[in-house]
Amino acid sequence: MPDKPILNADEWRIADPDRPSEQLSREQLLEMYYFARLAREVEERLVVLFRQSKVIGGLYRSLGQEGESVATAYALERRDAVLPLIRNMGALMTMGVRPIEIFRQYMARGTSNSRGRDLNIHIVHLPDADADEPVIVGPISMLGDSIPVAAGIAMGARMRGRPRVAMAWIGDGATSTGAFHEGMNFAAVQKIPLVVVAEDNKYAYSKPIARQMAIRRIDERAASYGIAHELVDGNDMLAVYDAARVMVERARAGEGAQLLGVDTMRMQGHAQHDDARYVPKALLDAWTAKDPLRQFRGVLNDRGAAHDRELDDIDKMAKDYAAREAEAAASEPLPDPASVVRGVYADDPYTVPKLEFVRSPFAGSPGLKTRPTPEAVAGDDT
Ligand SMILES: Cc1ncc(C[n+]2csc(CCOP(=O)(O)OP(=O)(O)O)c2C)c(N)n1
Ligand SMILES: [Mg+2]
To answer: CA angle, 143 as apex, 137 and 147 as ends, to 5°?
Structure first.
């Protein structure tokens, strides 16, 4: 386990005395909870589809990491760039990706983001220049390579005079690759507005963290590049949001790349085909008690933001929505075999379809909105 201190919501420290989460309205807190619950319910539905052999390929879950995925993405603005990996369904939901897009892609429908061709986790969105939408580059299989790509996206946007912060999530195992280190160093010297979320989830497939790095805190990976870094309790959504928000603002203000380490746990095997027998039960039990959704419910109760009954209603809403979206995707056609040679040559306008985005059901807090700046009055996003 990493040495203390790991920041949690009661130990606010990050040089900045103000905690951005205190600016969040009740609606926004509920929206964060909803996104995390929706991520979990979309994956629960994918498990059902996987067991019915309707998922084409493997299924990689983010159980236990929904909180950090949502709370980091919630610190962004809608035109920012995100590079999630397989544990970041929460980031996709937070950026407003319509759940049907996930189901289409996992079931290789002809309507999907890759027209049923590419790996089921490869979600991509390259918005039109003036669209109020995020750039999304989904999991790149060669781990570590998303960091130089993220740096390039943010640098390119800056060169075009349309700056975007890029946020990339990366696992502990992937931080051991050469591409990760080259990308970090490049981002540091170029002062690129890149925020890297490094997830210490205790395993890279079956390799425990102690055999992955000889340092005890994953955020120290950043130290040799002169990149600002911090480590937070990844299952404490407000602690994660606070740190992410400060880092995003600093990156946007020209202070260069930042790295946020999150201390969390992969609660299932690497994928559905891995029973994770190598993970000690005591470790899983300890982290079950720290489930991010259950913890956040406690926070919302304590703050008087929501009673359990209201949160149960949100749970049901997310679950029903995921089921409806899965059903709708399942009724869509598989790719037309005659289209197999389409999109091979540049002069064929058979391009990748744009993703559909949705707003969350929270009045005044659409899923794709400009997050309030710390100075803004919370809840005034009309
Ligand atoms: C360069 C590279 N090496 C190996 C793999 C195979 N692989 C895919 S995911 C994975 C484990 C990654 O662990 P980590 O980075 O800790 O992320 P986590 O799965 O824990 O979220 C491995 C070894 C790969 N995709 N790319
Ligand atoms: Mg890992």
So the answer is: 55
Query: pLDDT for 104-125, tens place per residue?
Result: 999 999 999 999 988 888 999 9
* Most ligand 1 atoms within 8 A of CB, residue of 205, 221, 287 to mutate: 205
Residue pointed to by tokens 């009954």: 309
Instruction: Count other C-beta atoms under 10 Å from residue 107's C-beta.
Output: 22
Mean pLDDT, rounded, for 87-115: 96
User: How many A from CA of 271 to the centre of ligand 1?
Assistant: 11
Domain of 308, in residue numbers? 24-332
Q: Ligand 1 pocket by C-beta < 6 Å: which residues?
A: 87, 141-143, 171-174, 177, 199, 201, 203-205, 266, 270
Please give the tally of structural domains in the chain: 1
Residue 185 lies in a domain: yes
CATH number at residue 268: 3.40.50.970
Q: Please give the distance, rounded to the nearest whole angstrom, from the Cα atom of residue 202 to the centre of ligand 2.
A: 6
Enter the DSSP assignment of 95: T
Using only the alpha carbons of the chain, give its radius of gyration: 20
User: With a threshold of 0.85, does the pTM exceed it?
Assistant: yes
What is the CB neighbour count within 10 angstroms for residue 126?
Answer: 16
Ligand nearest to the CA of 68: 1
Q: Strand, helix or coil at 138?
A: coil
- Number of alpha carbons in the 13 Å side-chain half-sphere of residue 373: 6
In a domain, 84, yes or no: yes
Q: How far is the CA of 143 from the centre of ligand 1 (A)?
A: 6
